[in-house]
Amino acid sequence: MGSFSVWHWLIVLLIILLVFGTKKLRNLGSDLGGAVKGFKDGMKEGAGSAEDKAAETTTAKVDTKTIDVEAKDKTGGSH
Q1: Domain segments of the chain as ranges
Q2: Distance between CA 34 and CA 27 in Å, rounded?
Q3: Which of 8, 56, 66, 70 could form a disulfide with 4 if both were Cys (CB 3.0 to 4.6 A apart)?
């Protein structure tokens, strides 16, 4: 039962083409390629996200019009 010859694989490929058709196989290939690309992009974002978050916190804009009441009460003195 070891290895199959080239003719066996060609017959299997022909049967698959007859059952599924070329359009479904083409769509399956493009979907699989898109999934792999999305996974790679996600891995790149995941690796760089820690560095990006650190950079975002240091360059974040501060809203000077908003006043935190609790912070003001705690540092403001007596009540």
Answers
A1: 1-48
A2: 10
A3: 8
pLDDT for position 36: 93
Among 25, 6, 9, residue whose Cα is nearest residue 17 = 25
Note every long-range contact of 64-68, with CB atoms under 8 Å and residues 24 or more positions apart, other chains counting: none
DSSP helix/strand/coil, 10:
helix
Q: Is the pTM of this model over 0.70?
A: no
Contact 76, 69 (CB under 8 A): no
3-state helix, strand, coil in the chain (%, to 5): 75, 0, 25
Dump pLDDT digits (tens) for 57-76: 555 555 566 666 665 555 55
Residue 38 CA: distances (Å) to CA of 9, 28, 41, 45: 31, 15, 5, 10
